[in-house]
Amino acid sequence: MGCLSWPSEEELGGVRQIVAEMTGRGVEEVRVVVSPYRICPLGAHIDHQGGTVSAMTINKGILLGFTASSDQQVILRSGQFQGEVRFRIDEIQHPRPGNRKNDKDPAKDLSKIHEECDWGNYARGALYALKRGGNHLKQGIIGYICGSEGLDSSGLSSSAAVGIAYLLALECANDLTVSPTENIELDRLIENEYLGLRNGILDQSAILLSSYGCLTCMNCKTKEHKLIHSPKLQENQENEEHREYKILLAFSGLKQALPNNPGYNCRVAECQEAARVLLDASGNGERDPLLCNVEPEAYEVHKDKLESNLAKRAEHYFSENMRVNKGLEAWACGKMEDFGKLISASGLSSIQNYECGCEPLIQLYEILMKTPGVFGARFSGAGFRGCCLAFVDADQAVEATSFIRNEYHKLQPDLASQLNEGSAVLICEAGDSAHVI
């Protein structure tokens, strides 16, 4: 698959030049945080229940150019949003008003938070998390942040990428040594405590732990992780079953979640209620109400005690955990067709059992399922807006993009017309973990 193609020297140079102009310093003094977007081939919607998930980063994401300020001031500009954010690192940051714990619109829970009032919330959240973690900061940063050009990042966890970018920049400016696992927890503080989103740790883990060409496996209960190589990338190994792949991102054009969907936080609560019923029935009511604390055998014995909605959520959790384990084996053997079938089954369970998604995203999923060369597909994210992901035979990737664009335009002409033809369906490659250049 070649060397990493992102960020390019041109992209890095552009970010450095802007920061140099902001600060009056030389471009050689500007550091750049590279914080990639992530995809989750298998393990959809089970991280918040302590399930096992898989993830990898792509060659698109967030760039944050910065220098340490000479005082405690933080000054930020954005390539996507207007205005300038200013605050001091000695300011006390409090969780945002309302704390969003009952917000049922995932569009507000994720990157749309930037647009609501102050796009600097994630930077303030990073400061909150670092102080909450017992870190002492002496210097602020002067920085410029931007996302990959022309890319709608909905469904790719741009929120976690942004939060991690600010954490790494502030840590670098203050000579703090913080491990990736510690930063996973710090970004969780940004999202769970500061912004009130009830998500798990999949997104942060993928962005911080991934390695180029590997599939990252994360046990969200134990926090243990491992990197699984595909045989093609292991030196001196050949596997005739291995087929070279590309990653496709097909965008819906839907920027905001539909107002009548029950939302992300509601699904989390339903999973917890299902766990509570199953644990009580099995005599383990003292355990935390998470589905990872329910033994698979106890689920089989007591699942008939769950009412319809809760039964579907539990079925998704336990079947998805099984798909992850099978998918890791397929990936390790280089069996992309088997891996893809599991991804597609995950997508179907997300629709039928987790009951997420909306008409445009479901239509995109169905188009991808019949696209020539596609191994497997599912929503990228909750499916309330944003995009679908697919693994596709590298030799058929270009043909597949044309097929998807044409078929989607037939079904959703209004939404399709809002997409830039060059970025409506993107061909991507695997990325690396977040780091500072």
UniProtKB/TrEMBL annotation:
MF terms per GO, please? ATP binding; kinase activity; metal ion binding; phosphotransferase activity, alcohol group as acceptor
Q: State the Gene Ontology BP annotations.
A: galactose metabolic process
**What SUPFAM superfamilies does this protein map onto?**
GHMP Kinase, C-terminal domain, Ribosomal protein S5 domain 2-like
Where in this chain does the record put each GHMP kinase C-terminal domain? 332-409
Q: What Pfam families does the entry give? A: GHMP_kinases_C (PF08544), GHMP_kinases_N (PF00288)
GHMP kinase N-terminal domain location is 121-209
- Alphabetized InterPro entries for the sequence: GHMP_kinase_C_dom, GHMP_kinase_C_sf, GHMP_kinase_N_dom, Mevalonate/galactokinase, Ribosomal_Su5_D2-typ_SF, Ribsml_uS5_D2-typ_fold_subgr
Recorded GO cellular component terms are: cytosol
Q: Which UniProt keywords apply?
A: ATP-binding, Carbohydrate metabolism, Kinase, Magnesium, Metal-binding, Nucleotide-binding, Transferase
Q: Please, which domain of life does this record's source organism belong to?
A: Eukaryota
PANTHER family for the chain: GALACTURONOKINASE, MEVALONATE KINASE/GALACTOKINASE
> What protein am I looking at?
GHMP kinase N-terminal domain
Can you name the source organism?
Answer: Macleaya cordata (Five-seeded plume-poppy)
